[in-house]
Design a protein that fits this description.
With 395 residues, this protein is of the alpha/beta class. It has 15 helices and twelve strands. It has two domains: 250 residues, Aspartate Aminotransferase, domain 2 (3-Layer(aba) Sandwich); 132 residues, Aspartate Aminotransferase, domain 1 (Alpha-Beta Complex), CATH 3.90.1150.10. Helix content is 37%, strand content 14%. It has a seven-stranded mixed beta sheet with strand order 1-7-6-5-4-2-3, with helices on both faces. Strands 8-9-12-11-10 form a five-stranded mixed beta sheet. 49% of the residues are buried. Bound molecules: pyridoxal-5'-phosphate.
Length: 395
Amino acid sequence: MKKESGLRRTTNEQRRESPGFSTRAIHDGQEPDPLTGAVNVPIYASSTYVQEELGKNKGYEYARVTNPTRDRLETNLASLEGGVASRVFASGMAAINAICAMYKSGDHVVCGHDLYGGVPRLFNQVLSGYGVEFTYVDTSDPKNVERAIRKSTRMVYVETPTNPLMTVSDIAAIARICRSKKVELVVDNTFMSPYFQQPIALGADMVVHSTTKFLNGHSDGLGGVVVCTRQDQAEQLGFVQKAAGAILSPFECWLVLRGTKTLAVRMLQHDCNGRQVAEFLAAHNKVKAVFYPGLKDHPQHELAKRQMSGFGSMITFETGSLANAAKMLKRVRVCSLGESLGGVETLISHPATMTHAALGEKGRKAIGITDGMVRISVGIENVEDIIADLNQALT
Ligand SMILES: *Cc1c(COP(=O)(O)O)cnc(C)c1O
């Protein structure tokens, strides 16, 4: 792959739309404040709203139910994913939980087998207790999804690419199966962001994000969103906001509104740096394997090229042993050893003992997560510095 140092210029579907992706990111829901003309959406730090008289208000009563800053963010994120509405929550996990909050005992969910570690924890240790049933399959083969769907199945939940193995699932093919079986398809689009992947355009019924990651982009606030394709979904999730209360605070909403304004330029640089780091790792003699959909030997490289307009900056690689991983993670200087991803800074982590510790050794082995694996969220620092840091840490 060609080495590039500047911003990569690509075309993709959503940027040919009018208005284009970046224009919507900067303007949809981000209109100037009608009262003052302030170019940024104000942080409405108010728990309640004065009513003119009984039964007469300006559409706002209590901030768990509605907040103007939150409304603006929900408009902005719905626009970026091509949905009709969105609902934001206190974290990505709160958003995923909100989708399941209306499920009843006996309802069934089909989901990927190598999801973000917190998701099976929620499913197995919280929701199973309420009688909701889960079947885990390798969603990279849509036939596995089809076979697992039952009469009681309410949702198919897919993460693509997955964390940390970067396995890609065919959203359009799974969406066709879901439609024929009348089951809702929910896609976690956290790793690609709406800039590189548009699950709704491919047939998904809802899209989930941990806004904590690329949408916020600066590692300074947690949040989650569910983007809806139908008004009834938005109403139901709005009811969950009100009834269960895991809402996103106005300040955190404002941080994400600020983040999405630069989403396009950040994603381009993340992708540009990600490709170069992946190439470097693939050529390094201390690295046994690299999991990155942008590499030609990735098992779903062709699908990734079709379904995504970039490959992003999440890379997992095999160092061979826990000792090798620990040694390199201790030596990094530009990269920071820490959980999370999607910030401007490069974060490096160890799935087996960090993000995927809760799976247990057996659970990790079953899906192929080894003790020698290291995951990197390539930031937007100068890529030469990231590569030099990884090189000194590996050798
Ligand atoms: C981080 C993450 C989540 C959970 O989001 P939080 O904001 O940490 O609650 C869910 N899915 C993916 C893919 C994630 O990376």
